Amino acid sequence: MSFSQGIADLYLNKLTRLVSALDREQIDHGVQVVANAWLAGKQIITLGNGGSALTALHFINDWNKTISMQTQRSFRGRSLVDNVGLLMSYANDISFEDVFVEQLKHVLLPGDLVLAISGSGNSENVIRAVDYANQNGAVTLGLCGYRGGKLKEIAQHVVWADIDDMQISEDIHFMFGHMVMQRLAGYY
């Protein structure tokens, strides 16, 4: 039995169907939310768990380097997932549910953008961070999948991959980050 036979067609057809059905206005709006924060000189702060943590970190890697290099304009991006020691300290000493809120307490300023990524939309530490950001004058953008979960309800702006598949949701979120980078870097 061949395990790989047809997997490319199955996966790519599923991804293609979702890409075709995505709300392009919602995506363009999300890109504009990031652009507005950047142009206003605000911080863009990303966060997420698991694969979404790596997506959050990848966004900041691409955006800080490429947008700044291409435009000669500073991009004030930071990710709350890049300091493992700090994450584990808060998780151990306070709670895993508060690892992002505790960091926001020390860096968030009114008008900053908090971009929260959660495939399910229900990660408690992500939800608490968005609640905190909303209550403290930040702009919030949620990237979610599945039914959108709590994140879709509480984020001020949302990019939603309406599919019950974590990997396809993550693919869409990753593509969003590349769209932001290419647009703000002036590629198109």
Automatic annotation (TrEMBL):
The keyword Transport does not apply. GO terms for molecular function: carbohydrate derivative binding; isomerase activity. The keyword Isomerase applies. Residues 34-188 form the SIS domain. It comes from the Bacteria. Keywords: Isomerase. PROSITE patterns: SIS. GO terms for biological process: carbohydrate derivative metabolic process. InterPro entries: GmhA/DiaA (IPR035461), SIS_dom (IPR001347), SIS_dom_sf (IPR046348), SIS_GmhA/DiaA_subfam (IPR050099). This is D-sedoheptulose 7-phosphate isomerase. It comes from Jezberella montanilacus.
